[in-house]
Design brief:
alpha/beta; 10 helices; 34% helix
Length: 256
């Protein structure tokens, strides 16, 4: 396997400005197949803008993006999703009045080109119930398949959103702050879930919880002021003086 073929998602020289402000200033990175790669940095570092560029929710002013060696720099977001690059918020929320199973079934309908056919007969939708339950089992929600989403605790709603995202069959999964708003117990559950899901997938995640980053991630790219400040293992970036200085500006400890 060549060096190029080990890379799932890559970008070179990504640039994006808003008026006179350059939010992303020449970012290049390689996300290797089967890895969990973190994109971290202080507030305002350009992480979310970079995510939006990679998933084609924003156009880059300059640069190139490749998914499994294919240039996707100018493709539409839905075309990129069909290639297997899925961002977690593409299923932006759950349907609170539906059960967990029905929510995942809705995502499966999208994947299979059925659209939101609420009027479809139970017989037509029945073949989707088994894969829906399998996805719920995968994220640890098999026991609440028939529970309305409105009754699920926040952490389990987040797991349900992830199950809905998995229904779209991502090869590369982009997670934007998956631990945000979770309590300690839910963080542990979610981190374990991400670790399990990454066995068969490539994951790129923006995450502020550095303990989670230290535990999960094979490689970390640190952004500051829209540019790559450092890259390497957690041990390497956490001991980099430039990274420590960048985080100290936020009074944040760069330790696990």
């Amino acid at each position: 396997m060549t060096e190029r073929s080990t890379v799932a998602l890559s970008c070179r020289g990504l640039v994006r400005s808003f008026g006179g402000f350059r939010a992303v200033a020449g970012v290049s990175l390689d996300v290797r197949r089967g890895s969990i790669h973190a994109l971290i940095g202080p507030n305002g570092a350009g992480k979310t803008t970079c995510f939006n560029l990679l998933t084609r929710f924003l156009d880059a002013d300059a640069g190139r993006i490749e998914l499994f060696g294919v240039d996707i720099t100018r493709e539409r977001p839905e075309a990129v999703a069909r290639r297997g690059l899925i961002r977690s918020f593409q299923i932006s929320s759950v349907f609170l009045g539906m059960t967990a199973r029905q929510n995942v079934r809705m995502a499966l309908m999208q994947k299979h080109g059925l659209g939101p056919q609420f009027w479809a007969s139970p017989a037509r939708l029945a073949p989707l119930d088994e894969p829906a339950r399998a996805l719920l089992d995968e994220v640890g929600l098999g026991d609440v398949a028939e529970t309305r989403a409105a009754l699920l605790p926040y952490g389990r709603k987040r797991a349900l959103e992830l199950a809905m995202t998995l229904a779209l069959e991502p090869a590369v999964l982009l997670l934007d702050e998956p631990m945000a708003g979770l309590g300690r117990e839910d963080i542990e559950r979610c981190a374990s879930l991400v670790q399990r899901l990454a066995v068969d997938r490539t994951v790129l995640m923006v995450e502020h919880n550095l303990s989670v980053v230290a535990r999960l991630c094979d490689r970390i790219t640190v952004l500051a002021r829209g540019a790559v400040l450092a890259e390497g293992s957690y041990a390497e970036v956490s001991s980099d003086a430039r990274v420590i200085t960048a985080y100290m500006g936020e009074r944040r400890e760069v330790t696990a």
